[in-house]
Amino acid sequence: MLTEWFKNIEFAYGWVLSFLLLIPLLAYEYVRRIKRSEASMYVTTTHFIANLSSPRTRFRHIMFVLRCVVLVMFIIALARPQKKFAEQRVEGDAIDIVLCFDISGSMTEEDITPNRLEAAKEVATQFVKDRPGDRIGIVIFSNQSFTLCPITVDHNTVLRQIQNVESGFLRDEGTAIGTGLATSVDRLRTSQAKSKVVVLLTDGVDFGGIIPPDIAKDMARLYKVKVYTIGVGSQKEVDQVVNTPAGQVVQRKKLEFNEQLLQDLAEQTGGQYFHAGDKNALKNIYASINTLEKSHVKVTMLDRFTDEYYAILLIGLVILICEFVLRYTLFKKLP
């Protein structure tokens, strides 16, 4: 808990913390002074006296410990710990964007390193970071679709949800491109943004789902949503390990890919189709979309601070009062 607190804290006067180095010096001097005051001659017949020591004797060092704790508290309070909050003000015309991810089993093919879906997540993360001011949402689909993140300006939430995207999340297998696109368009249907965009990333092999791609395409045209389609993968053959009654066997498998469907979806909605055969191509595609859909916004970042030293100062004062009370009562020294 204390570690988490320090992760979110900045000190207005960090140089004051250097005074904490005084604590080890004070401890060294205290130990040296105690040793000098101890008797240098021991009488063998009085060894039993050690068993008769009072609580005052056993806890005689507690006063020094308390004084050191008070000093630490006051030094930290003087350094003025603050919690930082970043505020973002956006002025101008932003774009509403939905990232639509195919998470079917075919997206785990490894013709792109480490696989199609993981490469897409990595590049999409950078795309979100490059779109300050835009509202972004996430839709995932296989045989059915699901809104993983509604469109929002909270990009930290969007980035966290991108990392949560996994194949098999929706359990039912299939690739319902029409259903995924329809859900994405529905997220943008009531948007008042000047430009509305869906970035649909899939391998383009459509089967299953309730809504055909043609119906989803008509929805996008009706609500003036541009669809940029990204076809991920290739049609090359790869080795695949298959479990058989005779054991594991390596077989050649041809990867499926359908460009024609994705080209049609993009052309009919005013977007563009791209083919990503590797991770570098995928990066260039997102960079191209980033250029084609420019936001005319001015983003102002404001840092707001709240002081966190009050509680530390109060704790230090309470310990100091306790130390004074103990010093002049239980641990009072007689002349």
Structural account:
The structure is a single chain. The protein has helices spanning about 1-5, 20-35, 55-60, 60-80, 115-130, 155-165, 175-190, 215-220, 260-270, 280-290, 310-325, and strands spanning about 10, 80-95, 95-100, 135-140, 145-150, 195-200, 225-230, 235-245, 245-255, 275, 295-305. It has about 325 residues and is of the alpha/beta class. It has two domains: about 1-85 and about 305-325, no CATH class; about 95-295, Rossmann fold. The strands form three sheets. It has a six-stranded mixed β-sheet, with helices on both faces. The chain has a three-stranded antiparallel β-sheet with strand order 1-2-11. Strand 6 (about 195-200), helix 8 and strand 7 (about 225-230) form a beta-alpha-beta unit. Helix 4 packs antiparallel against helix 11 and helix 8 packs parallel to helix 9 (about 260-270). The protein is elongated and about 95 Å long. The protein starts with a helix and ends in an 8-residue tail after the last helix. About 30% of the residues are buried. The mean pLDDT is about 80.
Write the layout of secondary structure elements.
Layout: H1 2-7, E1 9-11, H2 22-37, H3 55-58, H4 62-78, E2 81-93, E3 95-102, H5 116-129, E4 135-141, E5 145-152, H6 155-164, H7 177-188, E6 195-202, H8 213-222, E7 225-232, E8 237-244, E9 247-254, H9 259-269, E10 273-276, H10 279-292, E11 296-307, H11 309-327
Helix pairs in contact: 4-11, 5-6, 5-10, 7-8, 8-9
